Amino acid sequence: MRYVSTRGKVPAVSFKDAVMMGLADDGGLLVPESVPAFTADELTKLSALDYPSLAYGIISRFATDIEPAKLKDIIEKSYAAFDTEEVIPVVRKGGLYIAEIFHGPTFAFKDIALQFLGNLFEHILEERGEKLNIVGATSGDTGSAAIYGVRGRKNIRIFILHPKGRVSPVQEMQMTSVTDENVFNLALDGTFDDCQDIVKEIFGDLKFKHDFSLGAVNSINWARVLAQIVYYFWCSFRAAENGRKPIFIVPTGNFGNIFAGYYAKLMGLPVEKFILATNENNILSRFINDGDYTAKEVVATYSPSMDIQIASNFERYLYFFYDKDASKVEELMKTLKTEKGIKFPAADIAKVQQEFGTYSAANEETEAVIASFYKSTGYIIDPHTACGVAAGLKLKTESPVICLSTAHPAKFPDVVMKAAGKAPEKPAGIIRLEGLPRKVADIPKDTETVKEFIRRNV
Questions:
Q1: Which end of the chain is more exposed for a tag (fewer CB within 10 A), N or C?
Q2: Which CATH class is domain 90-106+222-427?
């Protein structure tokens, strides 16, 4: 399998090169040259596998330049770090299936991809005798999951930018309590979009990128999306009801989580529809409802991982939506950069709406849903999951509904306590971080300052 850029201006590369490149050198995102599809018989066989075996059955279609035995070892090592043998339990609550994608080391769904990516990086670097400096931005969960994926690893340093004061206290604690020599946390005076823009600008400086051997862990890295594709198959197999296709409700701000599901459908997974759930920062909802992809000011909410206006993986979706027309994608991305928005024609949005619905839950509704869902089921959800559950409870359908639960409620104890009147039980992995020393550098919203920080610390 080879990988090409959504903007079509770089030669196709191997899987390992795609992992190490992160963002393509033409500014686009790397995607597989072709879509490997499963037959109905193959899906039946996959449905009988445990999680690591299922992951191998899917990922091996994409990572064709890694020896099978080594790839199996990387996958098994990645999911051995989870606190349940299932990796992702799927439970039935309040008429919905809740997929608990938060049983990894940092109690967020990002661990699914970033444990895998950390092991991939280590294997490729050791094989090539190279070093890597990872630069990433986080709205809360990616940062800690990435740090836990690569902390203490040989030949890797990681620089994570987060918006100062705009992540939850537990998210901040998980990141900044890691004091390993190869880990650097930068608290940026700005929003997540500012952090993300700086990371993209740094990767856009090709000389700097190559001179300092930069790599990406944000969902711009295809391996992130690839690992997430797996759990759509896993959840669908566990929520099968008389052959009816499921509806997936996906809390997402950066479009990576839901794009993985969209890609799983391209591969042959039967899906009735995707419901994109978000908060007041609803640029993706406005796109689906009205064709309006215009950035507005970021609003701080109870669900900070979705406090985003420009969604990185949206470009990958546009590439497939427009039948792999790289010139069309490049034109749209130029419009977005110069005009801070894109207006899509009604005919295109009608096509989008055949596969996607959407729902935006504001803080007040998020809080009310946490409270009512706990009262009716005894089950506590975090505020991101609550945005999805809010959408699910309004659906009138005979199809099984699967809501992806993206974080453990203990990562947002203040909101949960306020809403449910009960503090979520803290996992031991969070308790042991309390009171630990912190390592973080405050930094202004300036690309050159961030680049200088990297220069000093590599």
A1: C
A2: alpha beta
